[in-house]
Amino acid sequence: MSIKLSQIKGFLNSFLLHKGTFDLLQIDLIKRLVKHRAFQFAVILPNLFFFWLIILTGFFGSPVGNMNLSITFVWMLWWFALIALLVPLFSRLWCTICPIPSFGEWMQRKGFIRKKEDYKPLGFNKSWPVRFRNIWLQNLGFLILATFSVLLVTRPIVTGIILAILIILASVLAIFYAKRVFCRYICPVGGFLGLFSMFSSIELRVKKKELCVHHFSKECIKGCETSYGCPWFEYPGSMERNNFCGLCFECVKACPFNNIALNLRSFGKDILAKVGRSLDEAWKAFIMLTLAILYILVMQGPWGWIRDLANVFYSPSYGFALNGIEGFLLYAGLFWGTSLGLTPVTFLGFSYLSKAFSKASLPLRRLFIDFSYELIPLALGAWIAFSIPIIMVNWSYIVNTLSDPFGWGWNLFGTKEIPWTPITPEFIPYLQVLIVTIGLFYSIKLGFKLSSQHFLEKNLALRAFIPQLAFLIGTSILLAWLFVG
Question: What does the alpha-carbon distance between residue 53 and residue 72 come to, in Å, rounded to a whole number?
């Protein structure tokens, strides 16, 4: 299973011959791993252990957030790894190892690894309602969790309750509906994973679409003796975006022609794909960009009174009379109003200017939706920048709780007494600005290409993009001001 020199040469030749992509499945070790029937079970199982440990520490551990594993691992380590590393570099790889849907899926399959010859899924196996085959429910779920974010990141028991609810919900849905309905349409994390995975440097695609067109068995969907078929309701033969591919590799196990590739590619490729663009995804982009700005303002800004409003159980005494509930409702209104109203309406105005500047006959709705995808790199950059101080300032709490997960005074690995020592805090704001600048660069680059899809003449494409450029630069300046003042 070692990597041979000939495989590396083939790997590089693939990159040079296939327009800047290379197939990781050409490496024998990777291919054999993902094709093995036990692969996903093997990567989920250790994650499942930590998942339940986090729930237990949430319920029974110290109520002090930085002394409890549920807070330090979920909202410091996991969040940083997810948003800064896994999504931009490996698409939806988290879904490969996520333990939340595992019980429901194992129940459906009536087993953990091997597929039985007389396999028939357990449960009612219903189809998901057509009206909900979108990410609106995921948008709603993410907004609800974001509204209570201060409780989530400071109160271990709240984190434990939320994680327990998610795994119960995923298991219950698996009884009534076919495959991974929870992951595709409900999971609040899945919504932004799908959106940001469009920017990722990795993709799972078919090598030759014509093979899929003329092959009628469709084992990648229906399954075969070695595969259950795609649990995400995706057909690899027509897939052009990462949004709903959970990298379970069931299609790799099923394909009789070895026609599936796991490509390294340029960042942001899917943003230019013309299929699948919709209002629910546009609103997800608005939500993610807006909440990144609000989180930076609330959690990392100097205005403590805003942070106090975000805590529903906190009752400060200000010059104006606001108790905990009233202040929290004001805070929630800010979150929901800006995410669902102010930002989209403002962007609609800039889209109207794009239409006016270019004198386009295109419907405003089309320009509004398509241009919204240019926000993905900037929004991702804003979230990464927000996450930088979380890990650089709080890393010592993570290693402390590794030795003492419940906050009971243990010192299992000798890391309990490591002192709080932030990593170069004086450079953090400049690093944040750099990351936002990189996001801005990609948003401008991809935004102009989106404009060029509608306007073949470069002059018209540029005129249409000028208002978008102003919106992107203005948003970036706001983010930079929040970081460096």
Answer: 13
Is the pTM for the entire model greater than 0.85?
A: yes
pLDDT at res. 136: 98
| 251 touches 230 (CB < 8 A) | yes
What is the residue type of 95? C
User: For the residues 172-192, what does the mean pLDDT come to?
Assistant: 97
Distance CA 357, CA 454 (A): 14
Integer Cα distance of 231 and 213 in angstroms: 21
Contact partners, residue 229, CB within 8 Å, separation at least 6: 219, 220, 221, 222, 223, 250, 251, 254
Task: Please give the order of strands across the beta sheet that includes 22-23.
Answer: 22-23, 260-264, 202-206
CA atoms within 13 A on the CB side of 84: 18
Q: Are 371 and 357 in contact (CB under 8 A)?
A: no
In this prediction, what percent of the chain has a pLDDT beyond 90? 86
Using CA of residue 52, residue 54, residue 55, residue 61, what is the dihedral sign?
A: positive
- Calpha distance 231→251 (Å, rounded): 10
Question: Which of 31, 35, 34 minimizes the C-alpha distance to 10?
Answer: 31
